[in-house]
Write a structure and sequence with these properties.
Rossmann fold; elongated; five-stranded parallel sheet; seven-stranded parallel sheet; 320 residues; alpha/beta
Length: 320
Amino acid sequence: MTETPTILVPGRVHPRVLERLQERFEIVTAPAGTDFMLGDDEARRIKGMASFNFAPASWIEKLPSLEIIANFGVGYDGVDAKAAASQGVVVTNTPDVLNDEVADTTIALLLNTVRRFHAAESWLRDGRWESEGAFPLSPLSLKGRHVGLYGLGRIGIEIARRLEPFKVAISYHTRSPRTDVSYSYQPTLIDLAKVVDTLICIVPKTPETHKAIDAEVLAALGENGVLINVGRGWSVDEDALEAALREGTIAAAGLDVFQDEPKVPKGLIELSNASLFPHVASASVPTRNAMADLVVDNLIAWFDTGKPITPVPETPVSKV
């Protein structure tokens, strides 16, 4: 009889992941953190890991039988994929299944930011429409805007396609231009900010993107400028953004991600020209279930066939 693989689940994970894992695997749970809590015998049993963006090198090196880390989420900056690859460990993520949801939310956040729909609904619910009259006209509109996408990967391209019916101009910046789109390319982020009035950030967390949207970029965006961030809070200098919003350097911002989640800077919360979501871009039941299924399906595929479904670029992809 073939031995049932043992899967380590460090910290929290989507309940559907646990539910489906129980059908095929032995499960070991442990708190995520700097301390590795498993004994040697238990560590040797671990063949796979189902992770919510957590798998540091210090853990990987203590799991001698580890073959695969299945990450919940597109971003896997909390998983040391290079350390895993050096030990022949496969890493997978969950691309594509959340693209539409994130792109839809991005458009909603953009509209919410420029038209202040959140404040308009509060005006109605608080009885102010009846007692004070019509809600004030929104100072901004999406009409006639020039939108710049900082990042044009799988999700970025879906956002761009959704923007086309709004009849806005579209430009983008990535490390290199794409040959399959007609949007205008800008060679640097600052160049992009200079030619657009609306900047949507959808880049991953890398050393190059750390606080890339800083005071200089915001100043280049201009006083009519709008910043939307649905990528990583890591990419925006939040102090510079708060100052820019307070001082009128830019007009408004819509944020779904923050540097130190779930902590949101008080200064941003106080601003009426900031629309703030609690990291909900992919947070629908159907989409999160699809992400959970892909985590488990990657593990099943690996142990059944030796071929993961969605390996990340750094990783080996098949058993030897």
